[in-house]
């Protein structure tokens, strides 16, 4: 079999299904599929992650910590940057083309059966979720790390019951589906918190926190909160990232190097640490009675973390940064991190966004950071028209700071020229930079253009362990 050709066929068949942004929040199709597959989502314990921003990075950090302790992991995240295969990872590595095709061929007869029984066929995302469950059960893995697609309560990943439920910061996004208030959105996201689970909450707006805490109390879940039970004690800039001291549920972890930028990534690291400690059996009653995680293991795991497309430096001379921020809260975090970390005298932006997002809100957050902005389109059919985007940008940035390029590669070339001009004027390397942002799709397109190996994120290093873990997954659940 020509695996490459078959992979292209599979991708085309998946893309022919109802697209990811056409969300029909319901669990009936997914519940039927996993029942036909033998409930693979129950094959091992689950750490379930929702929130508005930071989910994918928190999932990657959680995965790295679990692997550093000798556990075999399955990680499901979305969306992807370059390849569908990125979404389904075993031990930190995307499914190979052969594995991806084999998993699809395994589940598609059951998907077809579900399609025949429902007025609405299974979507692209639902099929990929079923594939992830099947791949993880077949591996088998010791623990699944699942990122919610949209919301929580009715997201198709919620056929799984998380032993630990992580909620990263909640803000306004997907308002058409989840509601236009923080309370409504938090109510949907709270749905992943199951009876008897441990809920790990990042710092939240008050309106969201009240909803999350109330739901946890109603279902009998225990709660750990950033800034109270765990959090970031200190952080300072370091070359290529930051140096942290984290307070976990079991103790204080010092001298942690995190090769990512921004206080939001430090917060994500604290949440991931708390999630892994909680997964290992920590409760409010026994904190202090059990030993902390091995600090060297924690340092090794965080030191190896990467998060492609999240404030990722892909080129130097000039510095080119790719970031997937696509809502106002996410862009505010990006702006703060760049202002803290870099010292550009002129930073040119390349911006392309989906038309169904709060594009004006995102541009407003970005405006103080950029000297110039080149607006464009990305490869999605949801991408806002460049001319329409330019009109929005001119209202916020002013006429002179905005230019338009219909193609993303031309936009990048124009922004690089602006950065090079700034460097030439100053005569100091590093004074000009480029930020490519506005969408995960924009970040992925830019990676294809600028990063090595066609933009496919590199395999994550497996932390070295002297031996396999001496505990079982059942003991940790």
Question: Any overview of this molecule?
Answer:
- With 477 residues, the protein is an alpha/beta fold.
- The protein has 2 domains: 3-307, Mur-like, catalytic domain (UDP-N-acetylmuramoyl-L-alanine:D-glutamate ligase), CATH 3.40.1190.10; 312-452, Mur ligase, C-terminal domain (Protein-Tyrosine Phosphatase, Chain A, Alpha-Beta Complex).
- It is 40% helix and 17% strand.
- The protein is built from 16 helices and 17 strands.
- Helix 3 (55-68) packs across helix 10.
- It is globular.
- The model is unreliable at 282-289 and 464-477 (pLDDT under 50).
Short descriptors:
477 residues, alpha/beta, UDP-N-acetylmuramoyl-L-alanine:D-glutamate ligase, Protein-Tyrosine Phosphatase, Chain A, 2 domains, 8-stranded mixed β-sheet, 6-stranded mixed β-sheet, 40% helix, globular
Chart the SSEs and their pairings.
Elements lengths: L2 H13 L12 H9 L9 E5 L4 H14 L4 E4 L11 E3 L2 E2 L2 H21 L6 H15 L4 E5 L16 E4 L7 H4 L3 H8 L8 E4 L4 H14 L2 E4 L5 E8 L2 E7 L4 E7 L4 H17 L15 H9 L8 E4 L3 E4 L5 H14 L4 E6 L7 H8 L5 E4 L10 H12 L4 E3 L3 H19 L5 E6 L2 H11 L22 H4 L1
Parallel strand pairs: 1-5, 1-6, 2-5, 6-7, 7-8, 13-17, 14-15, 14-17, 15-16
Antiparallel strand pairs: 2-3, 3-4, 9-10, 10-11, 12-13
Helix pairs in contact: 1-4, 2-4, 3-9, 3-10, 4-5, 7-8, 11-12, 12-13
